[in-house]
Amino acid sequence: MAQLAGKAPDEILDFSANINPLGPPDWLRPVISRCIGELIHYPDPDAGALVAAAARRYGAAADEILVGNGSTELLYLLAQVAGTKRAVIPVPCYTDYARAARLAGMQLVSVPLAEQDGFRFEPTQFAPLLNEAAAVFIGRPNNPTGQVCPAQSIRTLAQAHPACFFIIDEAFGDFVEGFDSLTTNRPPNVAVLLSLTKIFAIPGLRLGCAVADAALVRNVRKRQTPWSVNTLAQAVGAAALGDTDYVARSRTMVHRQRETLLAGLQTIAGLKTYPGTANFILVRLDSAAPDAHVLAQRLLAEDGIAIRICSNYEGLDARFFRVAVRTADENARLIAALQRQWPVQRVLKGRKAQPKARRIPAIMFQGTSSNAGKSVMTAAFCRILFQDGYRIAPFKAQNMSLNSFVTREGGEMGRAQAVQAQACRVEPDVRMNPILLKPNSDTGSQVILLGKPVGNMTVSEYIRYKPEAFQTVCRAYDDLAADYDAIVLEGAGSPAEVNLKHHDIVNMAMAQYARALVLLVGDIDRGGVFASFVGTLEVLAEWERALVAGFVVNRFRGQEELLRDALDYTERHSGKPVFGVVPYLANLNLPEEDSVTFKSRVLDQERTRNNNAVEIAIIDLPHISNFTDFDPFRMEHDVHLRIVRSADELCRPDAIIVPGSKNTFDDLAYLKHSGLAERIVRLAAEEKTEIVGICGGFQMIGKEIRDPQRVESGAGTATGLELLDVQTVMAVEKTLLRASARHIPSGFEIQGYEIHHGQSLTNTLAPLLVRPDGASAGLTNAEGRIWGTYLHGIFDADLFRRWFIDRLRVRRGWSTLGQVSAVYSIEPALDQLATIVRRSLKMDAIYRLMGL
């Protein structure tokens, strides 16, 4: 099919084979991996464990169980031992029934099923043909019609004709809700064929079984080739026969998707459908339409979709074709492709046509771990696509971060996605990060949905909320994607977290919904990157593995050629290519999402200390938020930035900044218990150190914080450091706004944003920053040496930042620079990043996979 379509095999969407759309169960790969060591031995010739599992599953004795290389092998063997000269077969049906009968030397008697009756099979119409011995082949459900004749009717018919041998094929029975299997109350002249390869989506492994009379089973085993079922198939079969939960989930999913697919097919006037109960649907083209051969060729060539032409089924002609039930997205693609084969006016009136499958090009960067470089790689790709002329947007379904940003509309989102939006040269939009989790304790977070808080949730509460939240995420993605040419998605943590995978909404579940190709990013600087690539794939389900296009090695120091053997090994082992090796990029000057990285970069700066620099100490709060407020200082050559975690580390800096916090009460308690609060107060009294509080830090250096509604804490009321005469009350309604303000002492205009629940009031302090509406955005003491503000991003302003640094220099008795020495802009960094990543990755190959 791939050759006919001029496509790669994995580009063919195969509706011709009736395989479980859920794909193989998650346990398949671990079972196979565990048994690889056993391949040095021959398989158990009696398949003892597999036979025992089948006996338990079907309530039969072990000597009534046959296992084989697929149910087709057993079909041919049963025909050989049937001992009859006639075969009675209702048609249309699986074509191998007739072939097996012919090879066994039987004369065929076909019993046509009436199309006008929907190809329903009525066993009583067989009775006149069974007065002499015959082998009767019946599919339940029938392939290709999907019809199921009642089990009790078969039992009655078999009991009435003991000289006949009934071979009942229940290969698709597991897909039928409420299915009454003939393995229960089976008459002795009935053999039941059962397929494991279809329901467990392992047709390449070949595995089937049958339940039959013990004497018949012995006869078949004498004719069966030795070691018909290999070691891996035996192990997989034993596991499969014990997994009734997967079968139940498959049955429910197929029923739901069959009804949707059937409804979609029925919107097309050129088609007649024959509703069945299996995981496939028989369809007939009307006389005015091209035959199924022409339709199949068009679908294959234009859409890469394969359907099963049914002209080789006895009783059907070239107007008939069969389609499997697949996933919702794949079914929608089929309906859209079929609708394109007919003019719009031929869609049936009064029936709403199914929406066309629409998925714009999408790529997703996931990581082998947290901090592997997903955010940076996403930003780089956003800028690359923008440079190449595409309208592009970033997307992260769920972000857990205390580093947030406020949009122009007053919505809160992850700071990383705001940076990625800047890489796209578009305005940040809460649809780019529909869920933001802001941890406020070790076991809970504030949940921000589409920019607004919906409450605080524990981990278990949020897990229960996730299905509802994911619906919002999908709507946000669709709405965002409609405005752009392509989307660059970012995952979270690792997709291989086996304790989280079952309720994941940010990694593979989102990639599947967006139909995004996934590139797995690994940090080679940490070590073990190739084992991480292979190991990550090993714990992914098969549907998840299928989404992974390949790997990106990040943060490599050295000559890429030295990695050649490892890159080749990774591709040979996984079947996935490495799309590039990105070098280690030091001091890129992009805002970090993770405070751990921010702190390590500040510590790096400490090791290269400039002795002619003012010293600014940032208090390392346990729940520090918006730590990127201090990124601009790292660009200033005359600033020494320090992260302070204890009172002993504080010493006598020129300025102390108490940063924002997501849990002001706990972080205030931390300041007091660690001795930092006492030390800060003592330095304030010495009148040599400037004390600054931002957002939560502003509240902490005030006199008192009250939380009557328990918005942030159960503490109720707490006394602050009492450095500013400010009373703060936590409000249920969260303040979220982009703001500008004039800094009164310097006269400079400052742009920033506010994110806080607290409302801070004073009767004694002078305003430090004033917004255009006259409202205060910050307060200061009389000397101007202790001040606080709710304005995040205040130090981004180059003129104000230089004024602030120069004032610290004056206190030291040093000369001032008097002019801006560093321009804070991430635009050069984004362009530099894009240049390096573009040079490092196989961009042509990635673009082809994206369809760009």
| Major beta sheet summary | 11 strands, mixed
Number of helices, counting only DSSP H or I runs of 4 residues or more? 26
**pLDDT < 50 runs, ≥5 residues:** 344-357
CA-CA gap between termini: 24 Å
Instruction: Name the shape in a single word.
Output: elongated
SS-derived structural category: alpha/beta
Q: Report Rg.
A: 34 Å
Helix content: 25-40%
Percent range for β-strand residues: 15-25%
Q: Return the average pLDDT rounded to an integer.
A: 92
Q: Care to count the β-strands?
A: 38
Please explain how this structure is put together.
It is a single chain. The radius of gyration is 34 Å and the shape is elongated. It contains 26 helices and 38 strands. The protein is α/β, with parallel strands linked by helices. Helix content is 33%, strand content 23%. Residues 344-357 have low confidence and may be disordered. Strands 26, 28, 29, 31, 32, 33, 34, 35, 36, 37 and 38 form an eleven-stranded mixed sheet that branches. The chain has a seven-stranded mixed sheet with strand order 2-8-7-6-5-3-4, with helices on both faces. It starts with a helix and ends with a helix.
What is this structure, in a nutshell?
This protein is α/β, with parallel strands linked by helices and 852 residues long. The chain contains 26 helices and 38 strands.
Keywords:
seven-stranded mixed beta sheet, 852 residues, alpha/beta, single chain, eleven-stranded mixed beta sheet, 23% strand
Write the layout of secondary structure elements.
Layout: H1 2-5, E1 13-14, H2 28-35, H3 48-58, E2 65-68, H4 71-81, E3 86-91, H5 96-103, E4 107-112, E5 135-139, H6 151-160, E6 165-169, E7 190-195, E8 208-211, H7 214-223, H8 231-241, H9 244-265, E9 271-274, E10 280-285, H10 292-303, E11 305-306, E12 308-309, E13 320-324, H11 328-339, E14 362-367, H12 374-387, E15 392-395, E16 398-400, E17 404-406, E18 412-414, H13 415-424, E19 435-439, E20 444-449, E21 452-458, H14 459-481, E22 486-490, H15 508-514, E23 517-523, H16 529-539, H17 542-547, E24 548-556, H18 564-574, E25 578-583, H19 595-606, E26 614-619, E27 624-625, E28 639-644, H20 647-650, E29 655-658, E30 660-661, H21 664-674, H22 676-686, E31 690-694, H23 696-700, E32 704-706, E33 717-719, E34 727-743, E35 749-761, E36 766-770, E37 776-780, E38 786-789, H24 798-812, H25 827-840, H26 843-850
Parallel strand pairs: 1-11, 3-4, 3-5, 5-6, 6-7, 14-22, 14-23, 15-22, 16-19, 23-24, 24-25, 26-28, 26-29, 29-31, 31-38, 32-34
Antiparallel strand pairs: 2-8, 7-8, 9-10, 10-13, 12-13, 17-18, 19-20, 20-21, 27-30, 32-33, 34-35, 34-36, 36-37, 37-38
Helix pairs in contact: 2-8, 3-8, 4-5, 4-7, 9-11, 12-13, 12-25, 16-18
